[in-house]
Model the fold of this input.
Amino acid sequence: MKLEKTTRPLTFLRRGQPVTVGNVPPDRTLLEVLREDLHCTGTKEGCGEGDCGACTVVIGEAVDGKLTYKAVNSCIKLAHSVEGMAVFTAEDLASDTGEQHPSQEAMVQCHGSQCGFCTPGFVMSLFGMYQNTGGGQDITREQAQADLSGNLCRCTGYRPILDAAQQMGSLPLPPGCEVNEAATLAALKSIRPRSQASDTYLRPATLPALLQARAAHPRAQVVAGCTDVGLWVTKLHKRFDQVLDVTAARELRRVETYPHHLAIGAAVTLTDAFAALVSEYPPLKTFAQRFAGLPVRNAGTLGGNVANGSPIGDAMPLLIALGANVVLMRWDKKRQQVAHRELRLEDLYTGYRTNVMKADELLCWIKVPRAGKASSAAPGQELLRVYKISKRFDDDISAACLAIRMTVANGVVKEVSIGAGGVAATPVRARQTEAALLGQPWTADTVMAATAALRAEFQPISDMRASAHYRQTVLGNLLQRYWLESQGLQRINLESLTASDLEAVA
Amino acid sequence: MNARDQNTDAVTPVVISSRADAVAAPDEVPSPSASPARTAPAAGVSRFHESARAQVAGAATYIDDIPEVRGTLHAAPVCSPVAHGRLKGLDASAALALPGVRGFVSALDIPGDTTLAAFAHDEPVFAQDTVQFLGQVGGLILADDVMTARRAARLVKWHIEALDPVLSVHEAHALESYVLPPVHVNRGNAKAALKRADHRLEGSFEVGGQEHFYLEGQVAYVMPLEQNQWWVYTSTQHPGEVQHWVSHALGLQNHVVTVECRRMGGGFGGKETQAGHLAVWAAIAANKLQCPVKLRLDRDDDFMITGKRHPFAYHYRVGFDHTGLLSGLELEMLANCGFSADLSGPVADRAIFHADNAYFLEDVAISSYRCKTNTQSHTAFRGFGGPQGVIVIERILSDIARTLGLDPLDVRLRNLYGIETRHTTHYQMKVEDNILDPLMTQLALTSGYRERREQIAAWNAKSPVIKKGISLTPVKFGISFTATLFNQAGALVHVYTDGSVQVNHGGTEMGQGLNTKVAAIVADELGVPFERVLSTAADTSKVPNASATAASSGTDLNGRAAQFAARNVRDNLAAFVSGLDGCGAGAVRFEGGQVITPTTTRQFEDVVSAAYANRIQLWSDGFYRTPKIHYDKTTLTGRPFYYFAYGAAVSEVAIDTLTGESRVLKVDILHDVGRSINPAIDIGQIEGGFVQGMGWLTTEQLVWNGKGLLQTHAPSTYKIPATGDIPEHFKIDLWPEANREDNVHGSKAVGEPPFMLAISVFEALRDAVAQAGGNPEAMNAPATAEEVLRAVMG
Done:
C-alpha cells in the first residue's frame, strides 16, 4: 500500500529562537524559505548555483556536544536539510542595540562594500571564520584568500575584504554580538526530531534506517550536500516529490582510521574529508583548497562527488591514483541486516553519469589506502601529485585533472597509478600510461614514451573550458611537470606561489 | 566662486596609499566613535560608503527586496532557441496549462510602439517576424511565483524557419553586415609615413568581450497606479531612459511614468540600456494583466539575454624609426556589435578616440566597422570602447620595442604626447593637462621597474619552467560623454527646519560611492557635518531628464549640480543673516555646523529655523553643464572631452610554460583622481577597476558555439577574478595634483580610467611569453591558460 506522503513543518533556530515554517516542499531551497516565506531579504541570490557566494549563510550544528559553524550556499541547500540546526544570516549578527559584529564592523572600516550585493555573503563567510578561529584571531591573508574563494565580488578587487578578514580579530566583540553556545545547544536539543516514515523529506539518523528508507522509497531523490542536485532544482527546474538525505546517518558522518586505510563515510563533507586526506598526504593541501569554494566544500560530500560521477569531478582522479575503493550498501530484507559489496572506484562507472549501483544501493564508504600502505608497501620513494588545470585557480571546474602516484626504487618504477579527469565520459584510470611506466627505469626517455601514451590514451572533447587539443597537450605536459618535480625541481606549480616564493627559485 | 573650486590653489603634497597600514591613517575614519571632529570638512576624507552599515547587516534594499504588493505576478522570459530565423509564431498553450500560470505576453500585447525607443530605433521590444540571436526574448510568462513562471517559459514552443546565423565578426565584415555605417578618421598621411618609415610591423589580433557580472542580476518591478499612471522600480543606471522607453512602449506621455532606483547591486555599464528592456517587458505585462509584475532574471537568462562588452578584431600596419618613434599607423577595428546598434556607435567611436591612448599619432588612418552578428546586442561596459582602443596601441608599442630590442617603457616615453608640441590628438583636441611623463617616470622609480626588469631577465635565464614578465602601461582617458548633450545634470537640495538636509540628484548609486561623495560636497557647501546630509533614491519625478550615470561622470556632473543647489540655499541664508548683522553676504561663513558673521556665530539649525520663520526659501535646484566641450559627430573632430584622467601601472606576472597557467605577482599603480573627494572610495574604484580589467584579459572568456549558443552562461563556466587572483603586493598611490580644469572640488572622474591599467597585465604576460621564446604576437585576449600555452608554443 502506498503511504500518503506528508510534509512536516520545518523547524530551525534563528537568533536562539525556534522558527517553524509549514508546507515547505521537499525541493524548496533554504534561500527561498528565507527570502520568500520569512521575508528576510538580507541574504541575496547572485547565481542560484553555489558559485558566487552572495547567498552564504552560516549553519550551526551540535556535534559531540559542541556547536560547529559552516558557511554554506543557501541557494542550493534544500531547506529541510537544516531541520534542527541553527541558521545565521547577516541580519542576525548585530546586537539588539544595533552594534555590529566584528565581521561586519571590519568590512565597514576597511571599505569592503561598494554595491553591497555580495556583502551579506562575505560577512557570513567572515562570521564563519570568526567563529572557527576563536574570535577571528590570527587569520592570515593566505587563509582569508582560501576561505573566501567561494565569494565573488565584482566591485572592490578584494583587497579591502582581505584586510577586513585579517583585522576583524582585533576589533572588540560588542556585548550582545556573541553567540551563546550553551543556550544555543540547549535550544537545539529542544527541537524534537520529527517522525520520519511518511515524510516527503527523509533524513534517517542511522545507517540501517537510511538503507531501509532507500529500499522502501526507491523513487526518492537521494541527496547528500546537494551541491549538484541543488542545480537540478534551480537551473533544470526539476521537481522532487520525495527526497532522501543521507547526511544525518551518524555512522556515515565519520572518518575512520585503520592501519592500512582511511574509511570516509558518505556523509562526510568535502571540508572534513580533505582535511583527513591532507593530514595523510600533505602535498594535497593546495589541491584541496582549489576544490570548489569553501561554502560548497562545507556542504558537499566526498561520497556525493564520487556517486555523482561527473567526468570533471576532481576527487575521482585523485582517489583513483590513491587506489581507493568504494563500499556500496543495501538493506537485506531477508536477513534483516546491512549487506555490502566493495569495488575499485574506477569500476563504479559505466558511462557518462551512469554507474553499477542498484536501485536499493547507496554509496556509503570510500576506503583510501594510507600513505605508503597502498600495496605490499614496495620499498622506495613514493611521490604523489595531483594537478588541476582550469581557467581560474580557485573555485573552478577542471578542464583537465591528472593525479599521479608512483613508487620508484633503484631507479625503476615499482608502482604507479594515474587518475585523469576531463578527458573522457567518466573519471578514468590511465592504464596504458601506467603500462608504459611500470617496470621501466624512471628516466627522461621513459617519461617521453609515457607522455605519448598519455596523449594517445584519451579522446577528450572541446568545450567552453578548453579545446580537445589543449587537453591532450597539457595532459602530457603535466606528466613532464611530475617528472621535473621528481627530479627535485622546486616550486614550478604556480597554483600556490606568490611573488616572494618565486624570488627564491632559480 | 568658492575658493575650493579654483584650480590654482595648492597641489596637495601627500600621496595617499592603499596599503593596509593606511587604513587607520590620521585622515581616515577609524571608527564611528572616533570620527573626525564634526566641524571638519566632509570632502577629502575617507568616509565610509553611506550604505556600508546597512549593507553589512543585510538591511540595504535592492529591487527584489522591496516588500511585494498583494497580487504581484512574477515573470520569466521566453527565449529563442535558435540564433537566426523567420519567426512563424509562439505557442504558449502548454505553458498556460501549468497550474499557477496566469498569462503570456508577446509583441501582440504592446499598446505603443513595438520597437524600443533606443537611439537607432532598430530593436524590437519582443521578437517579431525574425529571430536575431539565441536568447532573444519573444515574450513573458506570468505566474504566481517565479519558479512556476520559469518552468512554464520553457514550455512555450517557437515556430521558426531557421536561417544561417552570422556569428563571426570577420564574416559580418565580409558580408558588409553592419548595424551602423563605418567611420573613418584620418590625420596626416599614414600611407606616406609608413612608406618612409625605417621599420614596419603588421599584425592581426582579437580581444574578447566581457560579461558585466553585476552581482545583482537585472530586475524590474512595475506597478500600475490610478488613472493609467505607472511606478517602476528598476535596477538601472539611467532612470530617465527607462521612463522614456516604458511610456513609449505603453503609448503614453512621459509624465505618467515614475522610475525609482535607490541603488544597484553593481552596474558597470550593463544597466545603462539593458535595464530598460526589463522594465518595458514588465510594464507590458503589467498593462495586460492589470497587476504589479516583477521580472527578475535568473543568472543564466541574464547571460543569455543581455549584451556584453564588445569583442573586437584588429588589423594594423605601423611604421617606426630605430628609436621606436611611430611613423604612420593604419588601423582597422571590427567591433562585434551583436544584432542591434544599442550603444555600439558611441562605443566604437570611443575606441577610435582612445586608439592613441597616451601617444602622439602624427599620421594615422583608422577605419571602424560596426559589425552586425546574430548574438546578444553588445553594450556599454566600463571604459565604453576605450579599453578596446587603448589595448591596440599598447600592444603595438610593446612589439616595436621587442623588434628593436629596446625597453618598452622607453618606446612608450618616446611616443608620449608633448607639452608644447606634438600635443594634438588625431581628433583635433589639444591635450592641455598632460602629466604622462612625470607620472610614468615617478611610477617607474617607485616601483623599481628598471631594476626589476633586469632581475626578471636574469631570473628567467635560470628558471626552466616558470617565466616572468613585466610591463608598465599608462592610461589617458577622456572625461565627458562624447554625445555632448548628455553632459548636463540637475539636483535638489532640501533643508528642513531642524537643519537636516536631503539631497537628490539625477545620478544613480551602483556602489561607486556617488551618493557618499555628493553628500560630502553638499555638507561642505552648507558647512554642516556629513551626517546631516541624506542622499535619496534616484527618482524621475524629482530630477527629470537626467543622463545615464556613466562615462565616469557621475560626481563631476551631479556633484556640481548638487553643489550649486546647496549654494543657492546657502546664498539665501547668507542674505538673511547678513541682513540681521548688517554685514555683506560675502562675509558670512558656513562651517562646522555654524553660520559665522563678523559679529555673531549661530548654529546652522538656528539660522534655518529663523529663516523659515521669515519665509526664506530653504530648498533649491541646481543645474550644471560641462563647459568647453563640442565636437562634430560626422568627422569625429573637436573637443569631445573636458579633461583627461591619467594613470599608469606596473604589473609583474609569471607563466607556466608547460600549461600556460599564469599569475599576477605584483602590481604598482599611480593614478590621477585630481584632488580626491574621498580617497578610500577612489582607491576602491582603482583597485576594483583594475581587477575587473585583469579578468577581462585573463580568465573571463565568453564562448559561443557554432550555433550561436553562449556556453559560458553562469559563474560555473564564466570566471571572474576571485580572492586568490589578486597579488599580495597591490599598491595604489594617488597623483597629488588637483584637476587643472575647474571641476568639482578639484577632483577627477575615476570610474573607468583604472580599468585600462590592467592592460599592463596583458602586456606583462606577452613579455613573459617572449622571454619563454614563444610568439607574443600570436596571443589574443583573454590570455587563458590555453591561449598562453598556444603563444608559448609559437
In short: Chain B touches chain A through 104 residues (CB under 8 Å).
